[in-house]
Each structure stands twice: as C-alpha cells, then as structure tokens.
Amino acid sequence: MRVKYTVNIYLFLFALVLLFPNCKDSKTKSKVFVEERQKSYSRIRYRIDSHAHIGYDGFDRAIRIMDLAGIRRLVNLSGGIPGYDFEIMQALANTTKNRIVNFVNLNWYYIDHPEIFQRVNIRNLNRAKEMGAKGLKIFKSLGLGIRFYDGRLMRVDEEILDPIWKECGRLGLPVAIHSADPVAFFKPPTIDNERYIELLAHPNWSYYGKDYPTFEELIHQFENLVKKHPETTFIGVHFGNYAENPDFVGEMLDKYPNYYIDIAARVPEFGRHNAKKMHDFFIRYQDRILFGTDIGVYSDSLWLGSKGFEPEPSDEDAVEFYRKHYKYFETGVTQMEHMTPVQGDWKIDAIDLPDEVLEKLYYRNAEKILKITLFGEE
C-alpha cells in the first residue's frame, strides 16, 4: 500500500513538471515580452503619468496597465481627504511600493465659516504631507460648482482660499488645478457644437447659460490666482486649462515662473494646431510641461481621457491610448487618429520631439516638480 502511495506521489510530481516545465523561465520570458513590447512603440522606456484618477478597487489593474504601457510611476489626483479616505488611498498606494502616489484634496464643508475652513484644511495639508502626499489637486468644481450658503459660486481666486495656497507654498506641495473646461462646453449644446457627442454623453458638462461664469471670466480668475501667489507652485492641468489657445498658455508660462502645465486629456485639442507651432512650443517650454493622461482606472471601468457611448474599454484599449500619446510626441506622422475619439471627429499631426525633450516631458519634469523619482519609493 505504501509503495503504491509513493508511486502516485511521483506520478503527480512528474505531471507537474510536464505542465510547468520551468516556472522561473516562464516568468523571465513574460518579463522580456513586456519589455520588448514597450520598446516597440516608444523611444523612451519609462514615464511618469502625473495626472490619473484611481478608485479604491483600481490599484492592481492600474499596475497591470502601467507595466504594459511603459508607465513606471503614476500620480493619483483623487487621493481624498484626511480623516475620510486619504489614509485608505495611502495604504493602497503603499501596496504598489509607491509606484502609485497620491495628491490630497480639500474639504469644502465649512466654506461659510472661513476661519474653521482654513484651519481644518491647513491641518489636513500638514497631515497629508506627513503621510506622503505629493501635492494638492483642485477640481473644476471650484468656480463651477462650489457654492456658499446664499447660492453664490465660489470664485477661483476667492480670498478665503489665500491661506490654503500659502500653506501649500510653505510645505512645498504643488497645486494641480483644473479651472473652466473646454471652450465648447460654454457654448450652446446643439448639434453645431464640435463637442456635441461628448456633451450628449455628459450633459452636466455643459456650462452654457444659467448663472455660470463665462470661460473668459474663469480663466481671468485662474490667472489672477497664479499671479497672487508667486510662493506657490501651480500646475495648470489640461494644457493650462486652455488647449484651444497655446499662445495664451505660453504667455502665462512666460509671466509666472511658479507656473507649470500638464497635457492631460488635451492632446486631441492642441494637436489640431500646426505641428511645427506645437513642436516649437514644446521645445521652448521643455522644462515646464508634465506628461499626464487623465486616465481613470476602476475594477469595472476605464476612463481614457473621457468617455462616451462606445463599449467599455479594455486594458488593451488603455495601452493603445498610451501608445497614441507616444506616437504624437515621437513621430512625424500626419493626420493620425487621436486618442480620445469622443472629444471630436478630427485628426492631428505628430510633432516628433528630440529624445532629451521627451525625457523631460515624460519624467524629468515630474521628478523635479513633484519631488518623486522614476524608480524611488518615497
């Protein structure tokens, strides 16, 4: 009986060897496959995506996509509020060995009590910095959604926020701020609107009429904010919140040394401009621009810059989304399909940047501004 039992064990082990001849070799081959795949569509091996949104359930999926797309580190701008969800997001980030890092967000609850509002948020900024926050993210609700008790919309440059920005400057926390939205969202949401399909998918993104400020008023408030606080580093996300007008964005970069921009979700927009003009823009401001995509990762959903009526994107779609970014910045292809079709039915011309500029765009500027490193575990 013992002999038969022993024989069965050996047969079982032999079957395992046949099924899994060399697990270590298999892992090595898989790693080589991923690395070769990355090289096949980009001249630069790794990047930092400085503009993403990750849900509680999206961290593992985000790492899978990052590995396939050549994203070494990723910045989650939806880190939450200390005492509510920031601690959870930090714990989840730690499970990735800090390949994913978090920005903190403000608590708007006490805006009708300025002293309490300021005290609570200054305390939260300090707590978040101690826990590892890399910056503060302000959403477009400032200027378009946050209201005082009397119904008045809070301005982007509201005075009660001044101590917040000053504290960010003191702590060395950059402020990534989304002000306004695409110009088309402030125009009538009719079939003549070039972003009509996107507005159909997201009707609450239309800011035409009612008591919303105009796009121009919001951009004026935003510039006034950056001007008032030279001690604080501001990142104008979405290509400085004005991808339709690179000249204006360049003027702000010229005027305010504390000001930077990212490219998140706006390559389709600024990519419509003359390729040489945009090539020259990225050369001139090569030290002031961060790579970002506005990807949103959840266990059952992906946002690739935006989202419409198409089927739910897959991980492979996310990799292709990244690949089109690299194609725009690294090749001279003309009339290429852009990465977010719901944002508009047009094509863009690639700008073929030199490697040293690509490195700054892809990760060196983020290392400098966000105080993170490509491979570090801060």
CATH topology: TIM Barrel
- Number of helix segments? 15
Distance between the termini: 59 Å
Q: What is the H/E string?
A: HHEHEHEHEHHEHHEHHEHHEEEHEEH
SS-based class: alpha/beta
**Averaged pLDDT:** 90
Question: Per DSSP, what share of the residues sits in E-state strands of 2 or more residues?
Answer: 5-15%
User: Over all CA atoms, what is the radius of gyration?
Assistant: 23 Å
Q: Spans with pLDDT under 50 lasting ≥5 residues?
A: 1-40
The main pleated sheet reads as: 5 strands, mixed
User: How many E-type strands?
Assistant: 12
As laid out across the biggest beta sheet, the strand order is: 3-2-1-9-10
CATH class value: Alpha Beta
Q: CATH homologous superfamily name?
A: Metal-dependent hydrolases
Overall form:
globular
What is the CATH architecture term? Alpha-Beta Barrel
Number of domain modules: 1
- Assembly state: single chain
Helix content: 40-55%
Briefly characterize the structure:
This protein is α/β, with parallel strands linked by helices and 378 residues long. It is 44% helix and 12% strand. The strands form 3 sheets. Strands 3-2-1-9-10 form a 5-stranded mixed beta sheet.
Fold and architecture overview:
This protein is an alpha/beta fold. It has a single domain, classed as TIM Barrel, CATH 3.20.20.140. Helix content is 44%, strand content 12%. It contains 15 helices and twelve strands. The strands form three sheets. A five-stranded mixed sheet has the order 3-2-1-9-10. Strands 4-5-6-7-8 form a five-stranded parallel sheet. It has a two-stranded antiparallel sheet with strand order 11-12. β9 (295-298) and β10 form a beta hairpin. The longest helix has 18 residues, at 2-19. The N and C termini lie far apart (59 Å). Mean pLDDT is 90; it is low at 1-40.
